[in-house]
């Protein structure tokens, strides 16, 4: 079938993206679903910094690539072997498919699924196939097995989680990346215990979800940190107990003083080495620093080595919130419905597909939290 999709032509375009237009809306041919694949009509797709990192070259991927990985939609057709989804079902796409059979999947860590890591890097579906082509036959790479900035997508069954059709799809979309990653970093990766002190560094769509996750987990203090004061104000509205602008002098000392030596757990969701170093500095003796921001592969951090040992510190990465997708999407949706995870407050704008370059310019300028593209 013919679809309209936003295709990244080359990485590293100059800003402003409103002028250089790195994404071009193209009419593409979408093949029918193969074995264990599903055709979905995309209804809503969120703009995440990880898409921006492909555009600006911080997360190099093969081009041309149909971008987008945070989405919700409706099943239109299922391929051979798909028995537990049917046309009409509402689904959320998760940006790491889980095969269920590799070693990490078997150990309950599907965020590390091995076949998925390989094919996500290669720009194919987990089957190894490209289902997107130009009229001249050129294959278009898939982004993280989803390619969500399009009216339809063919994805692996293993990339989808079924959700209740009562859940509005523009809210459902956020659960595929921002909520799963941010809340999961607090609940799964950091394993926050009631009464602990927590700091979150970087308050975009992902970091603000970590703030909400820390509150749900029962943190006694949730300290929200960013370089942008407007993000601090939103974090406060969402329930953060304290906010700090890390661009100001003396903030590390101020946080240490406030928390009697540092927080039990600091979560970095900014994607820069400076932010991770900052998060490490404000973590207390015996505490845990979790990092979820995605920096350029060549970036290195400088940490005081002896403190890891003599202070028994833990430094831990968190990918897709160390999630088990089916379990965690259901849990977080249930918390959302109870009003305990108001992730709808993070939706700052809705856009059309044709406004996508404007949307990424706004995200790059730090002027948006979560923007969602709506499809008819
Ligand atoms: N681990 C994962 O599975 C996963 C999933 C999705 C996104 N990510 C990554 O998480 C990060 C956040 O994504 P997002 O969509 O929320 O991005 P965003 O651009 O919406 O937010 C990033 C925030 O970090 C702030 N920031 C930047 N440098 C900072 C610093 N030195 N100190 C404090 N704050 C700083 C910015 O002002 C901004 O508010 C990105 O690196 C993204 O690629 C990781
Ligand atoms: Zn994302
Ligand atoms: Zn696997």
UniProtKB/TrEMBL annotation:
InterPro entries: ADH-like_C, ADH-like_N, ADH_Zn_CS, ER, GroES-like_sf, NAD(P)-bd_dom_sf. The keyword Glycoprotein does not apply. Residues 18-374 form the Enoyl reductase (ER) domain. It comes from the Bacteria. Pfam families: ADH_N, ADH_zinc_N. One of its GO terms (cellular component) is cytosol. Coiled coil: none annotated. One of its GO terms (biological process) is formaldehyde catabolic process. Signal peptide: none annotated. The keyword RNA-binding does not apply. Keywords: Metal-binding, NAD, Oxidoreductase, Zinc. GO terms for molecular function: S-(hydroxymethyl)glutathione dehydrogenase [NAD(P)+] activity; zinc ion binding. Its cofactor is Zn(2+). Belongs to the zinc-containing alcohol dehydrogenase family. This is Alcohol dehydrogenase. It comes from Marinobacter segnicrescens.
């Amino acid at each position: 079938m013919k679809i309209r999709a936003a295709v990244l032509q080359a990485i590293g375009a100059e800003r402003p993206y409103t002028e250089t237009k790195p994404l071009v809306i193209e009419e593409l041919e979408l093949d029918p679903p193969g074995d264990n694949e599903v055709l979905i009509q995309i209804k809503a797709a969120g703009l995440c910094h990880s898409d921006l990192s492909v555009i600006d070259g911080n997360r190099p991927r093969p081009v041309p690539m149909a971008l987008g990985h945070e989405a919700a939609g409706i099943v239109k057709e299922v391929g051979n072997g798909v028995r537990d989804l049917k046309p009409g079902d509402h689904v959320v796409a998760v940006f790491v498919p889980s095969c269920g059979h590799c070693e990490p999947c078997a150990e309950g860590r599907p965020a590390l699924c091995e076949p998925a890591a390989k094919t996500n890097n290669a720009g194919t579906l987990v089957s190894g196939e490209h289902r997107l082509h130009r009229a001249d036959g050129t294959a278009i790479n898939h982004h993280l097995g989803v390619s969500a900035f399009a009216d339809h997508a063919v994805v692996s069954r293993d990339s989808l989680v079924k959700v209740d059709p009562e859940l509005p799809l523009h809210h459902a979309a956020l659960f595929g990346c921002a909520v799963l990653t941010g809340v999961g970093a607090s609940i799964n990766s950091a394993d926050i215990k009631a009464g602990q002190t927590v700091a979150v560094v970087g308050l975009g769509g992902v970091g603000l979800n970590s703030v909400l996750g820390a509150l749900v987990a029962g943190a006694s203090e949730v300290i929200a940190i960013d370089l942008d004061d407007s993000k601090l104000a939103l974090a406060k509205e969402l329930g953060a107990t304290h906010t700090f602008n890390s661009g100001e002098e003396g903030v590390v000392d101020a946080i240490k003083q406030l928390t009697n030596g540092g927080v039990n757990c600091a979560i970095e969701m900014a994607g820069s080495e400076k932010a991770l170093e900052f998060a490490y500095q404000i973590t207390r003796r015996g505490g845990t620093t979790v990092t979820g921001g995605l920096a350029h592969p060549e970036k290195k951090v400088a940490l005081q080595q002896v403190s890891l040992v003599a202070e028994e510190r833990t430094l831990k990465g968190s990918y897709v919130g160390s999630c088990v997708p089916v379990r965690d999407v259901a849990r977080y949706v249930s918390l959302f419905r109870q009003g305990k995870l108001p992730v709808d407050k993070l939706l700052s704008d809705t856009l059309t597909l044709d406004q996508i370059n404007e949307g990424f310019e706004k995200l790059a300028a730090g002027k948006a939290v979560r923007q969602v593209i709506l499809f008819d």
